[in-house]
Model the fold of this input.
Amino acid sequence: MAFNWQTEFYRYRHYFLNIRRFYQQRRVRVYTEIVLTLLTTSFFLFFAIKPTLVTIAALIKEIKDKRMVAQKLGEKINSLSTAQNEYFAIEKDLYLIDQALPKDSQISLLVRQLEFLAFAHGVSLERVQYSTLKLKGKPEKEGFQEIEFKMALTGGYRNLKNFLGSLNNFRRIIYVEGFNFKKGKSEEILTLNISGKTFFLGGKNE
Done:
């Protein structure tokens, strides 16, 4: 059957007229415009406003991260300021650290100090022996090192005991590994044998 557009037009004409009259109603026009407005708004929200919102969210996160970093930097600055104040408070006493743990062996200075300590307590320092040291050039190893020593002193028991006690208050770190008393030529004179260690940081020896 051949398609006759005129016949079909007249058949569906009343549908088109009904739609036209339906759209001309005020309520229908208002609702249609609202729907179109909502569709247009949704389009711009998705394609235009959404990227802006994503950018704003990223900027807000970046601001929070930078605030956190600034806070941590502030805490570190406060810690450094506190440490600096504490350093200044003890700066005048830092030389005691070098005396307690010198950067080189300073063995000759140690012997002189022991001689003076013995003299102060009224005892005689008879001999001092210490482990082999490389006194010139660079040491065989670097870092924390120890010197073993042995010494013998003679004098009265109380004076020798006081000398032994003074080693605990010696500015340079000295570790007494062992000691013993022996009778001397008389009952009043004893010999005190001490073995121990002292330490240094392993810089160049004197």
Residues 146 and 192 are 22 Å apart (CA to CA).
